[in-house]
Design a protein that fits this description.
Number of helices: 12
Structural class: alpha/beta
CATH class of the largest domain: Alpha Beta
Strand order of the largest sheet: 1-9-8-5-4-2-3
Strand content: 5-15%
Shape: globular
Oligomer: single chain
Bound molecules: pyridoxal-5'-phosphate
Helix content: 25-40%
Order of helices and strands: HHEHEHEHEHEEEEEHHEEEHEHHEH
């Protein structure tokens, strides 16, 4: 018997509400205390920011952590601190948020897109090797959705070509590769604390590193080019005011206490959901087992094969599944190189050589992921119960049954 789909007015399969962010009276009290203290900003009263930086560095097993306004700025100042020069090439994938690429342009460097691994949607190390030229200066591997990139291979390629590695860990708070926290493996690692992220204060970012020179430069760039021990109106580098407030820092500090437990729950649910979805014809969870020991499931991704759903296009399927109560959507609609920014070279004043064109870039795996395959379930849903995971699978089966 076919049940009416929720999108057509039938009953929803999943009735649970998955709240985000999660907070209680402790978070409210902590923030209220800062408000009452009147010590909202820094650097002149930034002790709570410094305390959170230490907590986050310890959590990641890194020597240094530098908080800043968002993940994009974290990536940009980390890249600039690696001493890139105008026209240097930086290897990234086109299956990521625009910031991973736009910050490369902002640093007057050239983003070079290489394809993703069809198993994980992470950067394919073999493609990195093919893209290296004498101008290549850095690689920015994105631990997409919270799953670790193949860091041993990436670090070994970087070492043999003298390249810097800046991990985009904006999806990967608390995730691990071979039992080491992500962000702490490359020269620097960058995090976002924007509203949707697994650790959030509404907005915010962080750079972590073990390298003291990188630390000093990132610290200066986020603080208007000041240097430690310098005068207030003494500016050494082209920085800006990228500092966060004490209010953000106290909230992050309070939220960090929940992260380990929440990450464990998402990881467990992700593993369980994999076991359920791999039994459905036409549904294939992304593969695991390329080194990740903890997956933070900022996004749970599965591949959709429309031929098993009576050729129902992916966007329609995603809408039907969302209507059934699964917090999901179709993800990036196109690879980054198809964005007008790249297609039309709308780089404004950035000094990218005239010869650089993105018109003929083509990454087949990314295109398939965007146009045909990838469906994203958001991280807050991965904090649900085992029964919720079972209902997610049931919702997919319900749609399959209804359309076939
Ligand atoms: C992979 C990735 N990198 C970088 C960023 C940028 O972070 P923010 O929004 O905090 O600037 C994001 C944000 O969504 C992201 O998903």
């Amino acid at each position: 018997m076919k049940t009416e789909l929720a999108i057509n007015g039938g009953p929803k399969t999943v009735k649970t509400i998955f709240p985000w962010p999660i907070f209680d009276q402790t978070d409210i009290d902590e923030v209220a205390n800062i408000v009452k203290s009147g010590r909202w900003g820094n650097p002149d009263c930034g002790d709570i920011v410094a305390r959170f930086e230490k907590e986050f560095a310890d959590f990641c097993g890194s020597r240094y952590a530098i908080a800043c306004v968002n993940g994009s700025v974290a990536l940009r100042i980390a890249l600039i601190a690696c001493s890139v020069k105008p026209g240097d090439e930086v290897i990234i994938t086109p299956y990521t948020f625009i910031a991973t690429a736009s910050i490369v342009l902002e640093a007057n460097c050239v983003p070079v897109f290489v394809d993703i691994d069809p198993d994980t949607y992470n950067i394919d190390p073999a493609e990195i090797e093919k893209a290296i030229t004498p101008r290549t200066k850095a690689i920015i591997p994105v631990h997409f959705a919270g799953q670790a990139c193949e860091m041993d291979k990436i670090m070994s390629i970087a070492k043999s070509h003298g390249l810097k590695v800046i991990e985009d860990a904006c999806h990967a708070h608390g995730a691990e590769y071979k039992s080491k926290k992500l962000g702490g493996i490359g020269d620097a690692g960058c995090f976002s604390f924007q509203s949707s992220k697994n650790l959030t204060s509404g907005e915010g970012g962080m750079v972590i590193t073990d390298d003291q020179k990188l630390f000093d430069m990132v610290d200066s760039l986020r603080n208007v080019g000041r240097v430690k021990g310098g005068q207030w109106y003494e500016h050494h580098y082209l920085g800006c005011n990228y500092r966060i407030t004490q209010l953000q820092a106290i909230l992050l500090s309070s939220q960090l206490k929940r992260l380990e437990e929440q990450t464990r729950k998402r990881h467990e649910n992700g593993t369980y959901l994999n076991s359920l979805l791999e039994k459905i014809d036409g549904i294939e969870p992304l593969k695991r087992g390329k080194g990740e020991t903890v997956h933070s499931y900022h996004i749970y991704i599965f591949k959709y094969d429309k031929s098993k759903f009576n050729n129902l296009p992916k966007p329609e399927f995603a809408k039907m599944l969302a209507a059934e109560g699964v917090p999901c959507f179709m993800g990036y609609p196109q690879p980054l190189y198809r964005q007008p920014l790249f297609r039309n070279r709308n780089f404004m004043c950035y000094a990218i050589p005239e010869s650089v064109s993105y018109k003929d870039v083509s990454c087949q795996v990314t295109e398939k992921a965007c146009y045909e395959e990838a469906i994203w379930i958001m991280q807050n849903a991965m904090l649900g119960s085992k029964e919720d995971m079972e209902l997610f699978a049931e919702a997919i089966r319900k749609i399959q049954n209804a359309v076939n």
